[in-house]
Amino acid sequence: MPRARNVLLIIADQWRGDSLSVLGHPAALTPDLDALAGEGVLFRNHFGQSAPCGPARASMLTGQYVMNHRVVANGVPLDARHPNLATEVRRAGMDPALVGYTTTTPDPRLVPHADPRFAEIGDVMDGFRTFAHFDEVDFRTYMGWVASRGFALPEDPQDIWRPLEGPAGPSAAPSRIPAALSDTAWSGTHGIEFLRTTRPGRPWLLHLGFFRPHPPFAAPAPYHDMVPEARIPAPLRAATRAAEAAQHPMLAHWLGAQMQASYFQGATGPVSALSDRAVMLTRRAYYGLIAEIDHWVGEVLAELRRSGQWDDTLIVFTSDHGEQLGDHHLLSKLGWFDQSYHLPLIIRDPSSGATRGRVVDAFTEAVDLMPTILDWLGLDVPACCDGVSLRPWLAGGTPATWRDAVHFEYDLRGGWPQPSRLPADISPDVGPMAAMRTARWKYVHFTGLEPVLYDLAADPGELRNVAADPAYRGLRAEAASRMLSWRMAHAEVGLTRLVASPAGLTQRTLPARH
């Protein structure tokens, strides 16, 4: 009997691409992921296609850019005609199981409008078999698990994420929930349970999701103070919020609109009121949460070895989007800065001859993951996929042609639980934002606002918007032209690869998409 070919897809939530100790980050304690990188390939310049979770995960799991799948915000339905990773591997007889969530809203043309899934931030994408669902509204599945283990939940169960001591907000204290009952432990435990219940010879794909290091920014003991304060870098930002806000009116709006309640359980007041000390404590909690995930990833990988499936399983570790973490005076994931879109990506191919310990500097994107996994499984990649298989990199090769830019989009209006309020002088119909980033520059286009342009060679920190500078008029025109050409080249293919002919319906040969 041929050996099964399995896939373990580990997806963290809100993990920045720079936050791995193997990349030299002083506050990222990630020995288990570093070891995985040593056994596989680390993609240093990997970017997601959007933020927040809904659009980001839609791109990752359909292999399509946001302009094609059109899930532009949390709560926006995913058109059922788009194939996804789960539906495609299911066709081949695999069991696509899920621990965690995909933040997917169903197609309202196929289900009644009274369907309770429309009252959630997102449900599970079609095709997955739910092994353990981490719902993102009241966390009832996870909270029930906590209560079943004898922990007395507070009146508001989510207060388990408040500091154990002192007021709500950034704190040096741990969260109230013990590490053994944390949501990260919930995900890791269910991932191990899945591996212990697989059937020999039956191939599987496990989407293993971790809620962290997503807010609330509070880590359980001992992770809360595991990272020494001296190792935590200061935020990358302009000297003042006013100087940062001067870059663009949307940035000025966000700097004044963010509220602490979105990031710290029970907190009040604006983010702009946080002191430098509070921002440092926020960053410390974030890296504590990362250290906790790394521990549980190690436990899951140890079980994969114990179960005898290590040499049959493609392992992928990544995230959906990043986190500003005080950089540019912002929290959360939004806008156009690299901190919100640059992601970790480690892939271990168990095949003989696969590369071990390679670091790839070329640009890769979240849309590449579905084609890579399908290609590794020997399955056809749907024509609608915008991504490209990364298998040549895994085998030690370097493709003759490859992209020299990455692309991401963001809806300025937001989504769940209700669209964000825009500044009074901006029409609510002005929503789309699209960015194109090369090694040399970043160009950000808006439907009704002036663009943003950075000369990354001179300003790698993205602190000076030169879009209005006459000296950059040529670069601005070049960047806008390139973005238009890219969008035209990657418009949804749909049925455009087919054409009627005297011999009947035939396949047209179109240029490769990179």
TrEMBL record:
One of its GO terms (cellular component) is cytoplasm. The keyword Metal-binding applies. One of its GO terms (molecular function) is metal ion binding. Residues 5-378 form the Sulfatase N-terminal domain. SUPFAM superfamilies: Alkaline phosphatase-like (SSF53649). PANTHER family: IDURONATE 2-SULFATASE. It comes from Limobrevibacterium gyesilva. InterPro entries: Alkaline_phosphatase_core_sf (IPR017850), Sulfatase_N (IPR000917). This is Alkaline phosphatase family protein. Keywords: Hydrolase, Metal-binding.
